[in-house]
Amino acid sequence: MAFEGSVALVTGAASGMGRLSAQRLAAAGAQVAAVDVTEDALASLAARHESIHAFPCDVSDSRAVEALVARVESELGPLDRVMSAAAIAPSGLLSEQDPELILRMMSINYGGVVNVAYAVLPRMLQRRRGELVNFGSLAGWLPSTYTGAYSATKFAVNSFSEVLWHENRNTGVKILCVCPPVVETPMLGQMVGGAHDMIQEAPRIQPEEVLDAIEEGLEQGRLWVFPGRGSTAAWRIRRWFPGLLWKRIHSSAGI
Question: Which of 40, 117, 143, 146 could cysteine-pair with 195, CB 3.0–4.6 Å?
Answer without folding.
Answer: 146
